[in-house]
Amino acid sequence: MNPTWVQHLLVLGTLLGAGYTSADTAGSWCYEDPKCGPETWAALPQGHCNGTRKSPINIITPAAVHNPHLGVVSLAGYGDAGKLTSMENKGTTVYVHLADGLRLSAQGLPATYTAKSFHLHWGQGAAQPGSEHLINYKSFSMELHIVHTKNNLSMTDALKDPEGIAVLAFFLQATAHARPSHYWDSFTQHLKKVALKGEDTDLDGSFSLRELLGSVDLTRYYRYHGSLTTPNCDEVVVWTVFPDPILVPPGVVSAFPSILSSTDSDTGPRLQNNYRPLQSLGDRQVQASAALRVAPSSSSTPRPAALIPMLISTAAIAWHL
Ligand SMILES: *[C@@H]1O[C@H](CO)[C@@H](O)[C@H](O)[C@H]1NC(C)=O
Ligand SMILES: *[C@@H]1O[C@H](CO)[C@@H](O)[C@H](O)[C@H]1NC(C)=O
Ligand SMILES: [Zn+2]
């Protein structure tokens, strides 16, 4: 065959291939392409992305209602490295499957929740942060989400319960002063084996979730009711957001977008800026845990002793809603 024809056929094949792929993934979503990015999610069939208790949000800390009943979050089994079974590039995030046996319990949660997986959100390296939640309009380099279901429900069943899912959200902040983390280094080494969308790799026990979390204080957190931050944006999530970031060297943060591709091709767009824009809080309330109480600042302010029972009862009422 004439080489020009071969070239034409190749081009035609590529076009057909591309056409097929996009038809095949109709109803799919993305972050960076305006054709399928967050602005289009509300229109997805069967989705809830246009709801009224959406996530992520900006947490305005002085507006959070202090709830003295919100004590330490208790994590059982999170130190067991053998529970992290495999890592997968989903094209929209990097996802770690968790074996059975990680249990979360905490005041304000209606049941014990079982961890099923975790994944991360990021921007474009250390210079461009990509957390989903913001604290007083400040974003962080990355955000880690541990996804749990109530009473070990399957994900499908959890999506039918308004409190079916509990997500623990931890921020990662790149800083040149951070001590090198053997565990995050090992995590980013594994990224190389899942560079392309659809690739997965078994994990080897070189890090546990507790080791990745470092020394984050599990008594200091914000709690609110929201949604998944990816389609279908189901409004079934009890969020627990820890404001004190895990400090990591900048190289950890830049590894994610530089190693991971959002497609099954090396030359495809980088997997980056995979965070949903802020959603409005509406008439919801954010609660602050007991340890986040701000001490009365000066003696010139009248001691708000009379206010305390009122705040407690407000919190208690809110909690029952
Ligand atoms: C989302 O909800 C708003 C307010 O209810 C409505 O005006 C808008 O048309 C909805 N958008 C979509 C895509 O459904
Ligand atoms: C939790 O659910 C998983 C998946 O359905 C199952 O394999 C596991 O045995 C369950 N764990 C308990 C303690 O019931
Ligand atoms: Zn997430």
Automatic annotation (TrEMBL):
Q: What are its E.C. numbers?
A: 4.2.1.1
Keywords, in A-Z order: Glycoprotein, Lyase, Metal-binding, Signal, Zinc
As its record notes, the protein acts as a catalyst of: hydrogencarbonate + H(+) = CO2 + H2O
Q: Name one Pfam family in it.
A: Carb_anhydrase
Q: Which residues form a coiled coil?
A: none
Instruction: Give every Alpha-carbonic anhydrase domain span.
Output: 27-290
Q: Which cofactor does it need?
A: Zn(2+)
Q: Name one GO molecular function term.
A: zinc ion binding
Keyword Nucleotide-binding among record annotations? no
* Listed SMART domains: Carb_anhydrase
The leader peptide range reads 1-23
Looking up InterPro entries in the UniProt record yields: CA_dom, CA_dom_sf, Carbonic_anhydrase_a-class, Carbonic_anhydrase_a-class_CS
* Superkingdom assignment: Eukaryota
Q: Name one GO cellular component term.
A: plasma membrane
User: Belongs to which family?
Assistant: Belongs to the alpha-carbonic anhydrase family.
Job of this protein: Reversible hydration of carbon dioxide.
Name of protein: Carbonic anhydrase
Report the source organism: Chelydra serpentina
